[in-house]
Q: What sequence folds into this?
C-alpha cells in the first residue's frame, strides 16, 4: 500500500525585539528608503541574549505539535535545518528532542543554508513514505544576527532571526507532498559563506576566524533570479500539475526584487506569492515555514490549496516542492489535552535533569576508564 506524507501541523516563533531600518541607520551608513527600495525589508527580529536558535526551535516545534494535536512521545524523528546553531555538535535537533520530551525520536541537523527547510522537508517525506518513520518534526531555526558583520551594510540589513516548524505524518490517503526537487552547484560556494574551524589557517594551527557572513550580492542575485522560476516549474511538472493548478507560491524571503523577478519569469501575478519579508527580513531556513504560518493565519493559504515551496541559498543550493495542502487545523485542545501536553513537557525537563545528575553521580562513584592509553612519561 502506498504511503503519503502529509503536513498536519505548523508553528512559528520570533524574538520580541524589533529592529527597524531607522535603528540600523544608527549602526551603519544606510537609511530606510535605501533598504526598502533594494530589498523590500522594513524591519527584522533580533534575538536577545536569552534567545537562541534552540529556544526558538523549541517554541516553534511545540506550537506545530499543538496544531497537529500530536504528543511529543508520538514523534519518531526530529530534523532541524539551520546555519546558526550554538554548537557544531551536539545537533540542535537533539537539544530540541530532549526539551520537548520526544524520547522515542531520532534527531539530526541538516545544513543547506536557506534551502535547508525544503531539503529537510523532503528528507522527512521520504522517511514517512518508506515507513522508517510515521511522524516527523521538521524545523527551520536561525539566529542569523549573530553571524552578520554589523559594519557591513551589504549584509547586516538583510538578515533576521526566527524559527518555523512542520509536523509531517504518514497516511494511506493520497495527497500531501506531491513532488520535491533538490539541486546544488558547489562551484558557487565562494559567493556566500561563513568560515568555520575546518578551514585551514595560514598560521597552521588555530588562529582567529571571521564568523561574519560573506556574500557576493550581485552574483547571488543573478543566481536566484535565474533558478527560482526554473525550479518552481520543475516541481510543478513533477507533480503532474500546471502553474494554473497552483493557488499560492511560498518562496524563500531573501529579497522582494528576487520574488518579483520569479513572478515575471513564471508569468504569474505577484498576488499569487506569499511575501512577508518586510516584517522579518531574511531568516534563512526559517523563512518558508514562517511565511506559511502567516499565510495560513491570513487565509491566503486554505485547505485543499495546491502550494509550491521554493528556496535557494549558499552551497549554492536550491529546491522546490509541490504540496496538496489538505491539512485542516483541528479544534482547540480540550482542557485535558492541554494538561496532558504540559505534563509531558514537564516530565521531559525533569527526566533530562535527573539523567544529567545520574551521570555525574556514576562518574564520581565508579570513576572513569581511560579510553586511550597515556603516553609514556619521559625520563
A:
Amino acid at each position: 500500500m502506498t504511503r503519503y506524507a502529509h503536513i498536519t501541523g505548523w508553528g512559528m516563533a520570533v524574538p520580541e525585539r524589533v529592529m527597524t531600518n531607522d535603528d540600523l541607520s544608527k549602526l551603519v551608513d544606510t537609511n530606510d528608503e535605501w533598504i526598502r527600495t533594494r530589498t523590500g525589508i522594513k524591519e527584522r527580529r533580533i534575538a536577545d541574549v536569552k534567545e537562541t536558535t534552540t529556544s526558538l526551535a523549541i517554541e516553534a516545534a511545540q506550537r506545530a505539535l499543538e496544531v497537529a494535536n500530536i504528543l511529543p512521545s508520538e514523534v519518531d524523528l526530529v530534523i532541524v535545518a539551520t546555519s546558526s546553531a550554538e554548537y557544531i555538535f551536539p545537533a540542535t535537533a537533539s537539544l530540541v528532542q530532549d526539551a520537548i520530551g520526544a524520547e522515542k525520536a531520532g534527531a539530526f541537523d541538516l545544513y543547506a543554508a536557506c534551502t535547508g527547510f525544503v531539503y529537510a522537508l523532503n528528507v522527512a517525506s521520504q522517511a514517512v513514505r518508506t515507513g522508517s518513520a510515521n511522524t516527523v518534526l521538521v524545523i527551520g531555526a536561525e539566529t542569523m544576527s549573530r553571524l552578520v558583520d554589523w559594519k557591513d551594510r551589504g549584509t547586516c540589513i538583510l538578515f533576521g532571526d526566527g524559527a518555523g516548524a512542520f509536523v509531517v505524518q504518514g497516511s494511506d490517503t493520497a495527497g500531501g507532498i506531491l513532488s520535491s526537487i533538490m539541486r546544488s552547484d558547489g562551484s558557487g560556494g565562494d559567493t556566500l559563506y561563513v568560515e568555520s574551524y575546518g578551514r585551514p589557517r595560514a598560521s597552521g594551527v588555530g588562529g582567529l576566524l571571521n564568523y561574519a557572513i560573506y556574500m557576493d550580492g550581485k552574483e547571488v542575485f543573478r543566481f536566484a533570479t535565474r533558478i527560482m522560476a526554473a525550479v518552481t516549474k520543475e516541481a510543478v511538472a513533477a507533480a503532474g500539475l500546471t502553474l494554473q493548478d497552483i493557488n499560492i507560491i511560498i518562496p524563500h524571503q531573501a529579497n522582494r526584487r528576487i520574488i518579483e523577478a520569479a513572478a515575471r519569469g513564471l508569468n504569474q501575478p505577484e498576488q499569487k506569492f506569499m511575501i512577508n519579508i518586510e516584517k522579518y527580513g531574511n531568516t534563512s531556513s526559517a523563512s518558508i515555514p514562517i511565511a506559511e504560518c502567516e499565510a495560513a493565519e491570513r487565509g491566503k493559504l486554505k485547505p485543499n490549496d495546491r502550494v509550491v515551496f521554493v528556496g535557494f541559498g549558499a552551497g549554492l543550493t536550491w529546491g522546490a516542492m509541490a504540496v496538496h495542502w489538505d491539512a485542516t487545523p483541528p479544534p482547540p485542545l480540550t482542557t485535558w489535552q492541554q494538561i496532558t501536553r504540559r505534563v509531558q513537557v514537564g516530565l521531559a525537563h525533569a527526566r533530562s535533569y535527573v539523567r544529567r545528575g545520574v551521570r555525574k553521580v556514576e562518574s564520581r562513584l565508579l570513576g572513569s576508564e581511560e579510553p586511550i592509553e597515556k603516553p609514556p612519561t619521559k625520563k
